[in-house]
Amino acid sequence: MEQEQKTKPRAVRKTERKPSVALGKSRLSSVANSLRLLKAFSDEDAEIGISALAQRLALAKSTVHRLASTLIGADMLEQNPETGRYRLGLALLELGALVRRNMDVSNEAKPYLRMLRETTGETVHLAILDHASVFYVTKLESKQAIRMSSEVGARAPAHCTGDGKALLAFQPEDFVDEVIGYGLAERTPNTITDPNALRRDLAAIRTRGYAIDNEESELGLRSVAAPIQSESGAVIASLSIAGPAQRISRKTLVAHAREVVKAAKAISQRLGYRPLRQPQFQGRAPAR
User: Fold this and answer.
1) In Å, what is the CA distance from 26 to each residue of 20, 31, 50, 64?
2) Fold of 20-88
């Protein structure tokens, strides 16, 4: 009788599929194709039909339709109801504006900050408004022995600084009321603490195009600031110079104001702002 040969069962190694990897590759491919689809549009081809898109991208019509539907849901594409063709959506305009605001202000301002420091010999600031304070984004310090000392990232009250008032002057009235509601703390005898007086000063700033800090935030310190506008015309930052009052007389202040306004306008234009007309420079310091 033959003896049955017993064999040990061998462990079979299962080759497990990794669905997450496959899914990840599929998603990356969809993202890449979505980007290719968006980049297919141009000034010459503002609207493109699905057949033309499929041909350009070398994709099936069903794939292009799926990608387009997703992009329409995100407002990145629109479909012309009359022709059925696709065009770029408003979400891209909003994203483009966001990129321009965040990237361009500091980058575009840098050469003008350097030029302004060389022209005036004083410390130059780029600032933004944060509630009732100004936040200093960039600073180029004066090369002179006696100069204003400040720090990037520092804050100062908006109601008594040149940067702050240049920004406040172009904010909605309810925002100004909110800032006034926080209280107009007196930093020096020159600080404007009366709400109506501050509103009058802000109105004057809108008229002449620049703000002055005449020892209002700190005794012995004067500054002049002008607003920087985005493509839409909104005031998004301020440009200023600051220095010791013993060196910046009222006459010097007006001369510096002209240079600050000129630089702020140049930065605004670099950001895409195009005014309908250029206001005349008001070359007289406020009487206070």
Assistant:
1) 10, 9, 22, 15
2) Arc Repressor Mutant, subunit A (1.10.10)
